[in-house]
Amino acid sequence: MTIFKEIVGEEYLTVSETKALLTDIEAERAADPDREMRYELARAIEHVNRFAVLSPEDADALVSELMELEKVNETTAYKITDLLPRDRDELRSVYAKERYSLSGEELDEILNIVSQYG
Hints:
With 118 residues, the chain is mainly α.
């Protein structure tokens, strides 16, 4: 017998937003020392602690500002926010799978926005 789980909804989160959520979960677990933390949860907490640079509010603001640009969709805005690229080459790697490439001016516009947060 196969058991399927229904997907109720889907939402993108930045690493910073995820860190805030996992910090709450970690605090709840700390209140009950008898419960052992699952390996996957421990690794996820370690990951977000290492890679979350922005506050959740700044990450959300950056995503919003990036999505106002013509060539930045929601998925790409979240990737850029998590990676905080510092130069054109790093930013181009985000767009590597897209069917279009950005001009130098478009890349610089995105990098200027990112530099305000990073």
